[in-house]
Structure formats: structure tokens, C-alpha cells
Amino acid sequence: MAAPVSRRDFTRLFALGGSAALLADPVWARQNPSTPALAPGGPASGEAFWTSVRQQFVMPSDLAVMNAANLCPSSRAVLDTLTRETRSVDLDPSPANRARLYPEKENTRKALAEFLRVTPDEIIITRNTSESNNLVSNGLDLEAGDEVLVHGDNHPSNLNAWREKAKRFGFAVVTVDQKNPHPGPDYYVDAFGRAITPRTRLIAFTHLTSTVGDLMPARELCRLARDRGILSLLDGAQSLGLLDVNLADIQPDFYSGSAHKWPCGARECGVLFVNKTAQDRLWPSIYSAYPGAVGFSRTFEGFGQRDEATMIAFREALTLQTKVGRAAIEQRARALTTKLMDGLANLPGVKVWTSPDPSRRAAVVSFVPGTLNANALATALYERDKVAITTRGGQDRPGLRVSPHFYNSPAEVDRLVSALATYLKSGLSL
Ligand SMILES: Cc1ncc(COP(=O)(O)O)c(C=O)c1O
Q1: Can you give the residue ranges of every domain in the chain?
Q2: CB–CB of 404/363 below 8 Å?
Q3: Mutate which of 72, 127, 128, 129 to test ligand 1's pocket (most atoms within 8 Å of Cβ)?
Q4: Which residue's alpha carbon is nearest to atom 12 within ligand 1?
Q5: CA atoms of 123 and 217, how far apart (whole Å)
Q6: Per residue in 95-138, pLDDT tens?
Q7: Three-state DSSP state, 229
Q8: Topology of 327-426 in CATH?
Q9: pTM over 0.85
Q10: CA of 134 to the centre of ligand 1 (A)
Q11: Ligand 1 pocket test target in 132, 135, 207, 210 with most atoms within 8 Å of CB
Q12: CATH fold of 105-321, please?
């Protein structure tokens, strides 16, 4: 970890040039000597590179956490940035020092725009995907006689949210049910196409489902919506930071995401992309001070006082992703997933919900672990094998969910598969 700013350092900074020294100290120019370098040679150089990626995180090397769909660790650089910027404000909460942070927020907006291949004018910095999705369902003029078309496999923030607001505003929600196993992109394009009526105003779906990791045909569905004069909301909670998302290509009207999932950013920061062509359709849900400085953020993002440290840390997370390489991250997570799927295929009694076709999945895998109790199994895996995954309760495709990311290794996947094999063979009371 970077050494915290000491009282002496702080005094020295002021002695060097007063608050100007702080103001002239942009985040991107500061080096953190304690963060290990990425191995030279990049992803092409193999496991040595990925080991150096793992060293960017503070997780102990013997703990295998494969739960990216829920929460990713922040990298060292993100933690250091968060600590430094938080401390800076508390050391000096003066207007002068805080003023330094406002341009930083705009730098994060620019970084997000570049990352998603859109313009800063279309980026809103929110708290998380839930907030982003709800800013859309709260902000559109929808009324009795209108229909919103949702995918039944959406997260509550993009499913229950619509159903609850339908009660208030009078519009109807029509659901395209999920099918398991993933029936292929054409099935969903056809199913959504058939469900559209002259009353449909918006389709809302998830890029990569959090339930069983079905990859939805985002570009095709957004195009279908556009061709039929309908808005599209693409929930990117499970694609931002995992897939090399290109919104210029997908062209949704709205796209949402969270920093704390696959991007490995700080918690309580997220993004909402609002396509220029849809901005005049969306009312702000919050009116307050401290809006953004450009484009739609000037009227839509007056959310009151914020934690700029978190936003600056989000930018740091995007920087790490770019340094590692976004295509390489996607390939790595997919390769680990394929290894996991191959391992599960050889385990007797395991029923896998996730598609065996790599083009219909990415890095979220759900399965039933034979007759073993999923909760007890997850506990055993964590306590005895130091492998952290999550359970899926309820009746809908229940079991265990594993979501490996670029900080995981093939050896960790092997450890999970071999522990599963042992428990399936000998039970949990070993
Ligand atoms: C598809 C999807 N959408 C939205 C969310 C909500 O994300 P957050 O809790 O970061 O708002 C999740 C969380 O798992 C998700 O998987």
C-alpha cells in the first residue's frame, strides 16, 4: 500500500507552494511505488503475466475467490487512490482542495466514455447499476396504454422495478421468459420481435444474465428496438469490465453498470450511458446541486454532494483494465470458464445450467452439485478448500454459481473441480 500522506508531507507540500502544490498534483501523474509492476511481455507471455496481474490485488494467494458476478476485489491501485483521496479531503476540507476534485470527476467521465466508446456528453456517474436502471424506469414518460417489454431473467432492479412502477404509472409490463439451456441468439431476437406491439415503448434486458450466465444478443436486440422505434435499456452489470463492450457498435439507448463488479473498482460507483438520441426522453429523478460539467450530466446529474474519491478510484480501475488489455481480460475469463465447464462435465450427477456453447456464455456458470446441499457445500469449499463461490437458492435453476475473472488461475479452477469431485464421491462429512 502507498504510505499515507503524513502531517510532515502535508506541511512540506504547503511549504513548497501552498495549496497550488496539491492542485498541481493530478492523480494520473502520481506513482505508487508499492504496487508491483505487471510482468513485461503482456498476456502473450502466459502465466507469469497473470501472476503479476494477481499481485495487483491484496487477496492472499491461497484464497481463490471466484465470485466476480457478485463483488470483485478492488486492486491495490484502486485502494491506494481511494485512501489517498479520502484522506486528502479530510486533511484539508477547504473549498480550494475540494475544487481540485471536480475536474477529477470529469476525468472519470471521460475515461468511462473512452472505455465504452461513446462521448462524455452521454455519461452519467451513478452509485451502481440498480440506481442507473431505476433512473431510467423513473425518468421516462410512460402511461396507461404503453407497454414495456422485459426479459424474465433480468435482475430485480430491471424487472421488479418495472413491475412496481407499472402499478404507479399505469403502463403494462410484458415478459419474454428465459429458456434453459440458452436456445441461441436467434431465438431471443425472434421472441422479442414477436412480443413487440404498437404499444411497446422500451425493451429492457441483461447483457449477460447473473443467474446462469446467458449471453444475450445485445447488438441485435438493440437494433430490433431501434428499427421498431422503441427504446432499449441494456443492463451491463455483468458485462462492464468482463466483455470488451463497445456501445458505439451495440447502440443501446441506455446502458448501466457498477464499478464494484468486473471492473474491480471501488464500491458505490456506477455508470449510466444515455444515448444522445434518447436524452430528451428522460427526466431527471433528482434535482440538487453539483451537476456534471458536460452534456447530459449538466441537467441530469445534480445528485448533491458525492464522494469524488470513489469516482477517481473507478478511473484507476479502468486504467488497470486498459493496461492489462480488455480483449485479454475477456479471453482469460472465458478460458478459465471453459476449463471449469470441461471439469464439471466430467463430474457425475452435476447438472449445469450454463450453455455448453462458448458463444452463448462468458464467465458466469451455474450448476446443481448432484444431491449435495448447495449451502453446506459452499461452506465446506470456503472453510476447507479456501474457494469462495456463491449459492443460488429458490426454485429457479438453483445450486452454485461460479464466476472467475482475470485475477483467477487455472490452478484455482482445478482446485475447485477436484474438491467438488471429492465431495460428490465421499460426501461432505469427510
Ligand atoms: C444483471 C444485474 N443487474 C443489476 C445488478 C445490481 O447491481 P448493483 O447491486 O451493483 O446495483 C446486478 C447485481 O448482481 C446484476 O447481476
Answers
A1: 105-321, 327-426
A2: yes
A3: 129
A4: 237
A5: 23
A6: 999 999 889 999 999 999 999 999 999 999 999 999 999 999 99
A7: coil
A8: Aspartate Aminotransferase, domain 1 (3.90.1150)
A9: yes
A10: 12
A11: 210
A12: Aspartate Aminotransferase; domain 2 (3.40.640)
